[in-house]
Here is the input.
Amino acid sequence: MEWEFIAPMIISTVFILTVGGVILLRPVMKRLGALLDVLVLQKTKAPDEENRRLRETVETMNERLTLMEERLDFTERLIGRGGKGGKEDR
Here is the structure.
């Protein structure tokens, strides 16, 4: 066989396989792309929700710490007043 006949057969075979591959794989790749978009959106939303929960937890802990500080101050004033009150009563 001569290259004059082989070259067009190779070129047409490659062309047909390429077009066939594109036609067959394009819908699959579109679906895969859509799936990847959804996954990326979920991953980008997850940190926002996690940050919100962490922020709420820190705020709650801050409120509880403030309440405990107020109680400690009250207790210290009571103890301090009790000692002074005993001396003043004499």
Q: What stands out?
A: The CA atoms of residues 40 and 80 lie 60 Å apart. The helical segments are 3-89. The chain is about 95% helix and 0% strand. The radius of gyration is 38 Å.
